Predict the 3D structure of the following.
Amino acid sequence: MSYYIGVDIGGTNLKTGVVDAKGNIISEASVPTGADRPQDVVLQDIVGAVKTSIASSGVDPKEIKAVGIGSPGAIDTANGIVIRNYNLGWKDFHIGEKMSEALGIPAKLENDADAAALGEVVAGSAKGAKSALIITLGTGVGSGFVINEKIFPGCEFGHMVIAYGGRECTCGRKGCFEAYSSATGLINMTKEAIERNPDGILANVAKVEGSVSGRTVFDASDKGDPEAAKVIDEYLEYLACGLANLINGLQPEVVSIGGGIAKQGEMLLAPLRVKVEREVFKGIKLPKIVSCTLGYKAGLIGAAMAVRDF
């Protein structure tokens, strides 16, 4: 039996696990990332967490073939280098080489969104699909495209422009998919609606909740607020526009949507499917549009599955 190590590096926590060839997690460990520390110090914690997960798995270390690492930031996959990660403060971090040296097995570095996409295809919402597009609606818009259980690299679809000259994006461009369809984009739309009507239901819900989150506008809509319903509809129009562009170009069998906004389930997906169908080029087979199912485990599983061919 062959086993693999998955490492999922987050801004708050880093997770490691022993995963079998079918994508089942045998054991896992988690430690705080401590992003304010030097990258080589963080590396020691990653190695320690890997060893902990191996020890608790009951797996013979000789059966562990390779380690896959999913990291945010600008990634040089071929050479295993995190070129730059501003959130973690990493620069020119040869993490692949260092992990391989520390553990005595081959290591491969992947973008964290790509790893999560592969995880959903191997063991989650898109299991069995020959092609799948995974979109994560969080602080930004994460994206990954998988064909025949292989990552198609470089899919930064969040920075595809869907509104020329539109809202400014953190990347410096204007009108990016991310600026409209991320949780941050929805929060900005919600705040603007509150400013327009500071005495409305939406404003009151935000006051009760103590802040504006991606959930606020849905909570207000549940209370019958027409202003909240308008914000959701506008948000879905932008999300459908971006997805339709990607579906027209990639023609995936499945589109899986994750992140905090996706927790709205069918309240989000049902109207989204209608809008996407209206936007997609006629003659293209519509993909299934579903929610991601693995949560944080997607990145861990995907990172491990990315090294099955080692």
Notes: Residues 181 and 239 are 5 Å apart (CA to CA). The mean pLDDT is 95. The two ends are 14 Å apart (CA to CA). The chain has two domains: 3-121+296-305, 128-291.
